[in-house]
Amino acid sequence: MNLDKIFYLLTSFLLTLGVTFAELRPNVIFLMVDDLGWTDFGCYGSDYYETPNIDKLAASGMKFTNGYAACTVCSPTRASLMTGKYTPKHGVTNYISGRTMWLRHEETTIAEAVKKAGYRTAHVGKWHLAPRNREDYKDFYPTHHGFDLNIGGGEWGEPATYFHPYQGKKSVENIPPGGKEGDFLTDRLTDEALKIIDDWKEDPFFLHFAYYAVHTPIMGKPELVEYFKNKPAGKRHKRPAYAALLKSVDDSVGRITEHLEKLGIADRTMIILTGDNGGLVGQTWNAPLRAGKGSAYEGGVREPTIVRWPGVTPSGSVCDSPVITMDFYPTILNATGAKGNADHNQEVDGLDLSAILKDPNASLGRDTLFWYFPHGHRRGGATPHAAIRHKDHRLIKWFNNDPIELYDLKNDISEKENLAESMPEKTKELEAMLNAWLSETRAPIPKPVSEKKKR
Predict the structure, then answer these.
(1) CA distance linking residue 168 with residue 27, whole number of Å
(2) Structure pTM?
(3) Are 69 and 301 in contact (CB under 8 A)?
(4) Same domain, 170 and 239
């Protein structure tokens, strides 16, 4: 009998005695992949990319078929993970490119919550939650939001290059000294993550590893690019450089999981893996979902989501319940026994997923999710909008007064047939729910472009 099986049986026994998940206090590693496409992993349908380590992680834990990012672009989703709140509440509604948005110090971040509960906390990789072009921008870095360590987190949301020394107009900051020409950023960040795990293996820790990959610039290690150039293209995916960049992420996941096994702490470490927004069309392909990053459609927000929690998640399980970024805030608090801040907790929108992580057929008691993006996105095609998914229907409301769109995701996952006119009552019902949520969250509604021009 392997250690995971023993740990699973022991955990189940403790739960029957009334011991809570929180009392088991696992380490938590949260892996966030940047611009992750819906079908980028083998276990989610890629016919060209190779992700054996991630596929293995899914096979040993739980895979979600309806996992969602909080926004169609990166910074808002990252702020929602840190706070557990929908985007209008924390105020980061677009990717941060200037001095008007940042993760506010008034928020109680997930790192601050678990640190207070006795956890050591580290951030590795992309941050992108600090303002730009302000003298005090470094005061909003991870170490000012509850993290003991910050490796690689800075003001930029993408690197100038993935090769050492990672410098250019968009330089990667806070990389420890060392390295040599040709070193790959994903590998270097993984080296640092493994050092942290080594140093903290005797203590409970929370590691937030936010990959810069697979964000542009699309580049991979030469030997991997060459390997994929010589591999027959798939019907869905075919770009060698993107495949190489993604393969380095998969190699990193493999190194982390193998290291946990080597140290004997895999059976008490919870691993969560997901993305911040959909894959960028032109670099990858999200079909059967419509569009991708920066769009209002499913391709912009539906994300591969995998959780491995030894003793809790049944191996090889699949959950169809819709889950979203904010849910991991209360889930991690429950897992670690962290109480957080009582006032902040009252504003948290996420739900604790512990019940469905134990039994994928359990009910969360929720059937509605929301999105809010009052901006445009040049490459993704979005104009200002808000959206709601209620059970199997998804409605998109455009702030420029374009006609509302309604889709039946159960029968039309590609969002090809707009049902707004043929289902007026359903459209009216979901629009009313969405308007009520916008009012409740005090979401600023941008004026249509036509009205702005009249002024």
Answers:
(1) 35
(2) 0.94
(3) yes
(4) yes
- The pLDDT assigned to 447 comes to 86
The answer to whether residue 274 is domain-embedded is yes
DSSP code per residue over 385-401: EEEEEETTEEEEEETT-
Q: 426 and 278, same structural domain?
A: no
**Minimal CA–CA distance to 32: which of 414, 402, 382, 303?**
303
DSSP summary character for residue 427: H
Neighbours of 170 (CB within 10 A): 15
**How many angstroms separate the CA atoms of 305 and 88, rounded?**
23
| Given 74, 123, 237, 375, the catalytic residue | 74
Our answer to whether residue 319 is catalytic in this structure is no
Structure tokens that stand for 255 in this block: 């190194």
By residue count, the chain amounts to 455
Which tokens belong to 356? 């469905």
User: Within 10 Å of residue 222's Cβ, how many Cβ atoms?
Assistant: 12
Quote the radius of gyration of the chain (alpha carbons, Å). 21
Query: For residue 32, which of 177, 129, 138, 100 has the smallest C-alpha distance?
Result: 129
Tokens 């960040």 correspond to 189
Q: Is 74 a catalytic residue?
A: yes
Between the alpha carbon of residue 49 and those of residues 35, 241, 292, 375, the distances in Å are 15, 10, 18, 32
Which residues of the chain are under the pLDDT cut of 70? Answer: 1-23, 449-455
Q: Which of 90, 123, 128, 145 is catalytic?
A: 128
Give residue 138's identity as a one-letter amino acid code.
K
CATH number at residue 124: 3.40.720.10
Residue type, 364: L
pLDDT computed for residue 448 by the predictor: 82
Cβ–Cβ < 8 Å for 114, 331: no
Helix (H, G, I), strand (E, B) or coil at 383: coil
Q: Let me know if 401 is exposed, middle or buried by CB neighbors in 10 A (0-12, 13-18, 19+).
A: exposed
